[in-house]
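Worked Example 4.2. Consider the chain below.
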Amino acid sequence: MATFTLATAEDTGTDVRSAARIEHVSKSFAGPAGTQLVLDDISLDVAPGEFVTLLGASGCGKSTLLNLVAGLDRPTSGAITTDGRPALMFQEHALFPWLTAGKNIELALKLRGVDKNLRRERAEELLELVRLKGAYGKRVHELSGGMRQRVALARALAQDSRLLLMDEPFAALDAITRDVLHDELTRIWRETNVSVLFVTHNVREAVRLAQRVVLLSSRPGRIAREWQVGIEHPRRIEDAAVAELSVEITEQLRGEIRRHGQH
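Applying the procedure from the previous section yields the following structure tokens:
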């Protein structure tokens, strides 16, 4: 029988050497055609303060792996340990429309146990961190798509987690807004030293943001290759070094897609 472990370092009493440690994780789902293997023997460490992007074709299991790390689902086999409870940010902002921007953030603070008298001040600090000073009282419908994602990021940061999981958070945004938020995320990551595990299918986005790019093969998802990104910050999406590495990774990704017969 397959076994799995899903725990924080505090739960296990282990020394913290990784923000996330994924050890020989596999995940299967039952379907009409039988059991389908989605992830196969994934092992990956995310170091404290490291920014890692998970890259792969649609359906390769990137989001499934992120959900496993978040504790939203359990692996079929293997072990996942995180440094505290991770915070998760989705492609959709998932803000409560009946609450203001500030109150959405305060809700995360409340769930964390922050004293009621301190929540507004902390929410305003987080809004300022994401460059939304003065937006505390704005309703969701008053915010642009980019502003909503900034509030969602502030809400994730309100959880005071040492690991931030991001599932294609900028995919639905226009190119200019996405470019601006790349800059903002990089700045916040460097200021807070939070560890980031970021899922994307956009190769240039992966290279622009990450210290390390991890490519998953097509289903079942396995780690096909990793790249250390030694390009100095600040990076631009159009930088020659970003483009050069993106071409190399794209060729590898195309090879994985061809190998698995996807179109």
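The two ends are 35 Å apart (CA to CA). The mean pLDDT is 91. Compare this with Example 4.1 before moving on.
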